[in-house]
Automatic annotation (TrEMBL):
InterPro entries assigned: DO-GTPase2, P-loop_NTPase
Domain Double-GTPase: 3-124
Name of the protein: Double-GTPase 2 domain-containing protein
């Protein structure tokens, strides 16, 4: 079994992201020469309850004090015939920094074989010069990205590991990246449509990843924003096997609404 923890603060877009992953995962894995040979009822129910449809509001996320039902998938490697069970967990980032909640949910972080850390650009209001008027975010930085990363690092007890670093792969993904077009260069790779035809020959679009990863790293260095510096340093020191990604719910059957 392989456990994948999807972590992000409430309203970060984590549940929408996970719903899209579950909807498209058969096609994505097929292009990596893997076959989903069975999904469990929990996955079917999750996809049904979190459909993204034009003209309808985006699905609501899970509350920070509840753990969504784990989402298991049975997968087989078409070449080696080796079978895997992938289990995805939807974990609110607030639960990672609350000591009481961490006792309850920490095991899902500690036993993870991979982590997807969803970061809302509005958590970097200083970096992107975003004026935040939503009640979903306040001046309390308890669940700031670097503190969530620190809490996850501590969950692994990685201070006793070789070099004091956690080798579990971590994907730090900026959600709602479309809102950054008003603050960054529109020509950046993270704003360009991906040509999915390339996936006919590549299981993972490595060049595309490298471009976006480099852009985000350079953004942290160029702006010298303390928010970006803290997160980047935290990941480099604690999770050296990490990379930066960006995604948006636009153009996935969602509709942009004014106001």
């Amino acid at each position: 079994m392989k456990y994948i923890a999807v972590v992000g603060i409430t309203s970060s877009g984590k549940t929408v992201y996970l719903a899209q992953i579950m909807t498209k995962i058969k096609e994505v894995l097929a292009k990596a020469n893997l076959t989903v040979i069975g999904t469990h009822e929990e996955v079917d129910n999750f996809v049904r309850d979190h459909r993204i449809k034009k003209g309808y509001p985006l699905p609501s996320g899970n509350t920070k004090d509840l753990l969504t039902m784990p989402l298991p998938l049975n997968v087989i490697n078409n070449k080696t015939k080796q079978k895997y069970t992938l289990i995805f967990y939807d974990i609110a980032g607030e639960n990672c920094v609350n000591p009481e909640a961490m006792n309850k949910y920490g095991m899902f972080i500690e036993n993870a074989n991979g982590i997807v850390m969803i970061i809302d650009p509005k958590q970097f209001g200083e970096l992107f010069n975003i004026t935040e008027d939503s009640e979903d975010y306040d001046d309390d930085d308890t669940a700031s990205p670097e503190k969530v990363a620190e809490a996850m690092y501590n969950a692994f007890g990685a201070t006793s590991a070789e070099g004091g670093k956690c080798q579990v792969p971590l994907a730090a993904a900026l959600s709602k990246s479309d809102i950054l077009k008003d603050y960054l260069d529109y020509n950046l790779n993270m704003f360009q449509d991906i040509c999915y035809e390339d996936y006919d020959t590549f299981g993972f679009h490595y060049e595309e990843f490298c471009n976006i990863n480099t852009e985000i790293e350079m953004l942290f260095k160029k702006t010298r924003s303390m928010q970006g510096i803290l997160l980047d340093n935290q990941l480099k020191q604690c999770f050296p096997n990490h990379g930066y990604f960006a995604f948006s719910a636009l153009n996935v059957k969602a509709e942009t609404k004014a106001g």
